[in-house]
From TrEMBL:
This is NAD(P)-binding protein. Pfam families: adh_short. Keywords: Oxidoreductase. GO terms for molecular function: oxidoreductase activity, acting on the CH-OH group of donors, NAD or NADP as acceptor. It comes from Hesseltinella vesiculosa. Belongs to the short-chain dehydrogenases/reductases (SDR) family. The keyword Oxidoreductase applies. GO terms for cellular component: cytoplasm.
Length: 296
């Protein structure tokens, strides 16, 4: 990392940043001279945040954004381009945990699809749109909000949430090649329990106290400033590509990727050929995708 002026004048798009972790990261970016564009469905909160940023000049805009829809994602990034000339930083933070403890709940298609749609599919859609916007500027960085639950699994109480965050980590780790194709770095941040309103949505729809609530109430907390520091490391340190940063009660650690099994090893020469052919193929696909994006 270099000096504090590194982000001066950069443009950041953040989803789910009307409050909680997203807002704290937006605060940090604005404090370092960034312009910010926030997409959320919490319009009152979002507009209030933007008003506070703009009290000292035109530094931010807000747009009601359903992150599960391509049309809303495109509109969000087009707004950033219109207002501030382009995009350099993307934080895909929108997510939910409410309703995760439903192993023996009703067979509700909409409810049981909602978490994956918001926590996973929106990240995929957001990344696809963000990559094109960033590529237009010669590259940039995407940081996805995952969770400690995306690295470990041992209780059923938040199993759908756990599955969704494992997916976010896996998806993020799959995108290393983007750095070579179009200059886009992708990282993930996995906070341990941190005090936000999201945490209070663990309560299930009954009068009973959920055992997971007791567990969480007696668990350590990660400080919000530690979480924000992890995001800023992922954003500012250009050597970080495909990293998973874990924000813990005692600080920040990098979660290393599991290694493949020896019996699955492919000869290095084939791997190198595969990578080089993939880079050429993806650059060709990128050119077509950029033309399509520009016409929207």
């Amino acid at each position: 990392m270099t000096n504090d002026n590194k982000l001066q004048g950069k443009v950041a798009v953040l989803t789910g940043a009307s409050r909680g972790i997203g807002k704290e990261v937006a605060d940090a970016l604005v404090s370092k001279g960034c312009k910010v564009v926030i997409g959320d469905i919490l319009d009152k909160d979002g507009e209030s945040v933007i008003a506070s940023y703009n009290a000292e000049g035109n530094r931010a805009v807000y747009l009601h954004t359903d992150v599960t829809k391509y049309s809303d994602n495109v509109a969000l990034f087009k707004l950033a381009e219109k207002e501030f000339g382009g995009v350099d930083i993307v934080v895909l933070n929108a997510g939910i945990i409410g309703g995760a403890n439903n192993l023996f709940g009703d067979f509700d298609d909409e409810r049981d699809s909602k978490m994956m749609d918001i926590n996973v599919t929106s990240v995929i859609k957001g990344t696809k749109v963000a990559t094109l916007a960033l590529a237009k500027r010669g590259g940039g960085v995407i940081v996805n909000t995952a969770s400690i639950a995306g690295l470990f699994a041992n209780i059923p109480h938040v199993a759908p949430y756990t599955a969704s965050k494992h997916a976010v980590v896996g998806y993020t780790r799959s995108l290393d090649l983007l750095k070579v194709v179009c200059g886009v770095r992708c990282n993930a941040v996995c906070p341990y329990w941190v005090e936000t309103k999201l945490l209070h949505n663990l309560h299930r729809d009954t009068q009973d106290i959920d055992p997971i609530e007791k567990l969480v109430a007696n668990s350590p907390r990660t400080k919000m400033e530690t979480v924000v520091e992890a995001f800023m490391l992922a954003i500012e340190d250009e050597t970080r590509v495909g990293q998973t940063l874990v924000a813990l009660p005692d600080g920040i650690q990098v979660h290393e990727r599991p290694q493949s099994y020896p019996s699955c090893k492919v000869p290095d020469e084939f791997i190198q050929t595969f990578i080089q052919e993939s880079i050429v193929d993806y650059k060709n696909q990128l050119a077509v995708a950029l033309e399509r994006y520009e016409s929207m």
